[in-house]
């Protein structure tokens, strides 16, 4: 009977294991769904709309094949279309009937004439705004897609590009080669198909257990037969029993014990040999059972609620993500470092703008003449503590960032601007934060902030009035009409300026009071203010202030000599003047300006000051 049960167990085990394996092989459907993206005519760029990427649920895998280098990038659909608006491209979109359609899109806009400098990764690329020269080839006039600040990420591979993606519907993918040759025509997007086989695992495991039981029953059956010395036949005559010779038995036992194995030892060895393959086969089968081969009995975890910031109705998307801002700042710092080393203002201008560029240009002039003149401070990149992008779909757009260098115990605040879709972001304002600066409450990077107009009446002071008001405080101190509107107690910059002016005036009067005069004046700088809103209806405002020192003779026979002042001599281009000199210092200042109705005062957040120019008084 044991053999019958063993055979039944073997048969049932084979059926169960076979059924489980069949579910994972011949009966299992396709694991991916693939869509071929074909176009009717060639174009340098192929735009795959986010609706196509999300036409099937799940992560997407982009596959493009062509000879040579293949480029792909993804970003916000609005940014992609803006970047492509001045060129012809093919677009893959999802029709109203749910079918994938392709269409050729003609140029709808002309690129701007300014602000189209190449990116840090492609600093020598031609400006898209340059007028076409009939002698210029397509390759020379093309704009490379590589390194644009609009891309959230980009990929480059040779001959075959495979990019795993997981993009929402508002993002799209751009595929190209070099911006001149036709984009790859062999492009597909695939999605994984949820094709679980929850009973494959239990069937294979159950079959393996039955197989082990069948083996055990088979071994027990053999053991039983051998112990009973074969099958018994009833009704046959038994042989006559003979007396047993004990001496012969002892000798036989001695022979058996000295060398030949006993029946029990042989049986035990065979049993062990039979069990080991069963365990090995079961382990081999278990290795092929992934998580989707088992029933999911546990309930799906529900995420716990967390605090969130409500996006104001009608607010547009933030200009950049945190990762994107980090990459942009790295590019700016790298280009600025190269320009600093080469004393190249043109290279610096590809990533710097406004007061930052003006100050560095002056520094290059001085370092080109004065051997030991100090180089400008490096632009910090890590770690970025705060990213506040402007929530705006158009241009120009801005991003504020705070970089906190814990090793040096210093922090910097900066404002980046992008003039149009084809321009890189440029650093427009850069300052050091006060040691005890308390930043106002800001929206998270995924929400962004609106840009406050220069003449906004919703703040206690319009942004375009802040520089003039603060300059008046530097000039007149407590006698300024604006003194009560600013928090001056923690303003170390104002205190330092006042102390430096008094010290220099005392030194000048000691030797030249009878023949000359030294005066100080502060005025609003030449660069427009930039302001981003905070959560308390206030704004962070960046402005520039120029400090002008004027020294001139008061005696008709006197002249102002620059014997020991190499800095002013280099910038002015002369060693002495009968009319005198003006020396201008550029201050980059960040303020927190509260909203109307607030009891808070305007607070200085950060500052920097560097020499800007020196001239002979006409």
Topology (SSEs and partners):
Blueprint: H1 2-24, E1 32-37, E2 45-48, H2 50-53, E3 60-76, H3 77-84, E4 89-94, E5 100-105, H4 138-141, E6 153-165, E7 171-176, E8 186-192, H5 200-227, H6 246-258, H7 263-286, H8 322-342, H9 345-348, H10 354-369, E9 384-389, E10 397-405, E11 410-418, E12 426-433, H11 463-476, H12 492-512, E13 516-524, E14 530-533, E15 539-553, E16 560-561, H13 566-572, E17 576-577, E18 581-593, E19 603-616
Parallel strand pairs: 2-4
Antiparallel strand pairs: 1-8, 2-7, 3-6, 3-7, 3-8, 4-5, 9-10, 10-11, 11-12, 12-19, 13-15, 14-15, 15-18, 16-17, 18-19
Can you give the helix content as a percent range?
25-40%
Structural classification: alpha+beta
**Proportion of beta-strand residues:** 25-35%
Average of per-residue pLDDT values = 82
Largest sheet: 9 strands, antiparallel
Number of distinct beta strands: 19
Radius of gyration: 41 Å
User: Total number of helical segments?
Assistant: 13
Pfam families: DUF8094
Biased composition (Low complexity): 125-139
InterPro entries: DUF8094
Keywords: Membrane, Transmembrane, Transmembrane helix
């Amino acid at each position: 009977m044991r053999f019958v049960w063993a055979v039944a167990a073997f048969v049932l085990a084979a059926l169960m294991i076979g059924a489980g394996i069949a579910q994972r092989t011949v009966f299992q459907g396709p694991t991916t769904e693939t869509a071929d993206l074909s176009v009717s005519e060639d174009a340098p760029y192929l735009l795959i709309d986010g609706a196509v990427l999300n036409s099937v649920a799940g992560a997407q895998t982009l596959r493009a094949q062509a000879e040579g280098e293949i480029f792909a990038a993804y970003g916000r659909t609005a940014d992609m279309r803006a970047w492509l608006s001045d060129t012809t491209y093919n677009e893959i979109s999802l029709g109203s009937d749910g079918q994938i359609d392709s269409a050729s899109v003609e140029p709808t806009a002309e690129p701007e004439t300014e602000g189209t400098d190449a990116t840090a990764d492609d600093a020598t690329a031609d400006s898209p705004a340059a007028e076409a020269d009939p002698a210029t080839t397509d390759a020379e006039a093309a704009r490379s897609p590589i390194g644009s600040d609009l891309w959230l990420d980009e990929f480059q591979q040779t001959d075959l590009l495979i990019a795993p993606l997981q993009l929402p519907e508002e993002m799209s993918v751009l595929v190209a080669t070099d911006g001149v040759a036709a984009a790859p025509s062999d492009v597909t997007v695939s999605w994984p198909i949820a094709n679980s086989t929850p009973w494959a695992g239990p069937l294979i495991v159950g079959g393996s257990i039955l197989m082990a039981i069948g083996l055990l029953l088979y071994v027990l059956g053999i053991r039983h037969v051998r112990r009973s010395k074969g099958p018994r036949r009833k009704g046959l005559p038994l042989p006559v029993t003979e007396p047993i010779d004990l001496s012969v038995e002892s000798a036989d036992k001695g022979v058996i014990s000295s060398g030949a194995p006993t029946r029990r030892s042989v049986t035990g060895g065979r049993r062990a040999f039979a069990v080991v393959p069963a365990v090995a086969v079961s382990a081999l089968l278990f290795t092929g059972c992934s998580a989707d081969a088992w029933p999911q009995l546990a309930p799906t975890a529900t995420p716990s609620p967390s605090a969130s910031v409500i996006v104001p109705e009608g607010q547009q998307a933030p200009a950049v993500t945190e990762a994107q801002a980090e990459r942009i700042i790295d590019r700016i710092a790298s280009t600025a470092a190269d320009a600093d080393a080469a004393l190249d203002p043109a290279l610096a201008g590809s990533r710097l703008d406004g007061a930052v560029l003006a100050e560095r240009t002056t520094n290059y002039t001085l370092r080109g003449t004065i051997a030991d003149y100090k180089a400008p401070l490096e632009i910090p990149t890590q770690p970025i503590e705060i990213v506040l992008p402007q929530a705006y779909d158009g241009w120009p757009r801005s991003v504020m960032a705070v970089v906190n260098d814990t090793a040096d115990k210093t922090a910097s605040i900066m404002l980046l601007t992008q003039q149009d879709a084809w321009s890189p972001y440029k650093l427009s304002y850069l300052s050091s934060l006060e040691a005890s600066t308390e930043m106002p409450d800001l929206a998270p990077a995924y929400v962004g902030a609106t840009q406050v107009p220069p003449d906004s009446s919703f703040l206690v002071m319009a942004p375009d009035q802040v520089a003039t008001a603060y300059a008046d405080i530097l000039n007149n101190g407590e006698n300024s009409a604006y003194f009560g509107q600013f928090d001056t107690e923690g303003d170390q910059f104002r205190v330092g300026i006042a102390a430096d002016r008094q010290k220099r005036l005392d030194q000048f009067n000691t030797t030249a009071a009878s023949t000359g005069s030294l005066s100080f004046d502060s005025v609003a700088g030449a660069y427009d203010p930039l302001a981003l809103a905070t959560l308390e209806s206030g704004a962070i405002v960046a402005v520039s202030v120029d400090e002008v020192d004027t020294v001139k003779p008061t005696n008709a026979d006197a002249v102002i000599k620059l014997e020991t002042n190499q800095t002013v001599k280099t910038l002015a281009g002369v060693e002495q003047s009968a009319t005198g000199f003006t020396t201008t210092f550029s201050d980059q200042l960040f303020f927190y300006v509260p909203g109307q109705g607030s009891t808070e005062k305007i607070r200085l957040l950060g500052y920097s000051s560097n020499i800007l120019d020196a001239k002979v008084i006409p």
